Amino acid sequence: MSSATTSKPGFDVRYRTIDLVTISTLAVTLGVTFWAWGKAYAGLSGLAVFSYPPSAGLLGGPWLLAGVIGGLIIRKPGAALVTEIAAAAVSGLVPGGTEWGMSVITSGFWQGLGAELVVAVLLYRRFTLPVAVAAGAVAGAVESVYEWGAYYQGVFSTGDKLAHLGFFALSGGIVAGLGGWALVQALARAGVLDAFPVGREQAAEV
After folding, report:
1. What is the C-alpha to C-alpha distance for residues 132 and 148, in angstroms, rounded to an integer?
2. Where are the domains of the chain?
3. How confident is the model at residue 8, as a pLDDT?
4. Degrees, nearest 5: CA angle 27-194-190
5. Do residues 75 and 201 lie in contact, with contact meaning Cβ atoms separated by under 8 Å?
6. d(CA 186, CA 109)
7. Which residues make beta-bridge pairs with 177?
8. Whether the model pTM is above 0.90
9. Distance CA 34, CA 27 (A)
10. DSSP alpha helices (H): ranges in the chain?
11. Concatenated DSSP letters for 64-80?
């Protein structure tokens, strides 16, 4: 399978009903996943292997999946950002919520913005594996910078901040970028995404 998946030149800014339904479906599915990962995060981040606080950024990748996946599937301006924000909102609304309350929506904004910026710079024309990895990494980096002020103000030194950014970007690139791209390709092969460019590209390769 080629990783050089691209869309046709230019892009359609009009959202179809199926685009909106897909964003909603992704938001609910990934939002519940975010919530579950948040519950696991407290225990995992307390493990000895994460005794260096900035290394907790390595656990951030799963929270970046929605923006990357939404962008890869919908391929329209705003899709990555909206999908990430919506998924974050769902995670905060699940009964019991998250330990961060509804501030997760703010995180969702910054995470989604990072992924959105990468596909926007490429004018929504390229959706290759490297682009997905870059989107995940930038989403992680942007979220890290947000967290410096939101959670680690006066706690992290400059070196700690840069280490946290690096760990978060690495996790984003691997988990959200590589993982998100692999998941989208698997869904396309299963025929779930036939109404989208990635589904048609998979069909053309068969």
Report:
1. 25
2. 17-46+57-199
3. 46
4. 80
5. no
6. 27
7. none
8. yes
9. 10
10. 17-45, 65-74, 79-93, 104-121, 129-150, 158-171, 179-189, 197-205
11. GHHHHHHHHHH-STTHH
Q: Give the pLDDT score at 37.
A: 96
Q: Taking each helix axis from N to C terminus, what angle separates 65-74 and 79-93, rounded to the nearest 10 degrees?
A: 140
State both tokens at 200. 């048609």
Contact criterion met (CB below 8 Å) for 123 and 66: no
Report the C-alpha gap between 78 and 86 in whole angstroms.
Answer: 12
Residue 31 exposure: Cα atoms within 13 Å on the Cβ side: 25
Q: How far is CA 103 from CA 64, 150, 151, 161, in A?
A: 15, 10, 11, 21
User: Above pLDDT 70, what percent of the chain?
Assistant: 94
**Tokens representing residue 33 in the block:** 């996943």
CA 148 – CA 11 distance, rounded (Å): 35
Residue of 41, 86, 90, 32 whose CA lies nearest to 61: 41
Give me the pLDDT at residue 97, please: 87
CATH number for the domain formed by residue range(s) 17-46+57-199: 1.10.1760
Three-point CA angle 146, 147, 151, nearest 5°: 140
